[in-house]
Amino acid sequence: HGNVTSGSVVTAPQTQNIHEASGNNAVQWIGAARLSRNLYDCHTVLSLTGDVFVNRQELLRQSRFCKISNNIYSVEGSVRSSVFRRYALLDFSARYTLSTQHLSLSDVITRNNDFSLNGGVTVFPCTNLGVYVRANSTFVQMPAATGTCYSRCMYLDAGTQYSFGKFEVELSAHNLTNRKQYHLRQFTSCDIYDYIYYLR
Fold this sequence. Notes:
By secondary structure, the chain is mainly β. The chain is 0% helix and 77% strand.
C-alpha cells in the first residue's frame, strides 16, 4: 500500500497545525491455515486454525519519521460434536493470541498474551426448538508501568431458538454473570494508551 503521511507540530505554549506531506509505504502480510478432521462414527469435527497478521508502516511524529510494526499470531483448537444425533450439540474451543508492537523511537517491544476458552451446549427438545447455554472465559496478560497487568473475565449467555417455515425466532439473554468494565492504562515511551473494555 502506498499513501501520504501528514502530522502536526505540538509544543508547550501552542499547537501549530503545520502539515508535512510525504510519501511512504505500508506492507501487510496475512496468512491463515486450517486443518480439520471429521469423525463420522461419533459425529464429531476436530479443527485447528492458525492466523498470522504482520503490518509494517511509517508514522510522522513531531516532524520525525518513525517505523511501527505490529504482529498478531493466533492458534485455535475446537471440537464440535452432535453425539446425541439431533438432541444435543456440543461446541468447545480454546484460542491463544500473541500481539506485539514495536516503535522505532523506543527499544521496548510491547507484548500482549490473550487466552480464551469458549463452550456451548445446545439441546433440542423437539424438532423446531433449541435451547442453548454458552460461556466464555478470557485471560489477558499485558505490560504496564508497574510491571505486568492481568485481566480475567467470564460471561455466560443463554437463549432459545424456534423455527417455523422460513422464519426463526430467537430469545437470548447476554452476560448473565453481570456486565463488567475494565480500564487499562499503558505507558510506552512518550505515549499513553487507554483501553476500556465493556463485557456483556
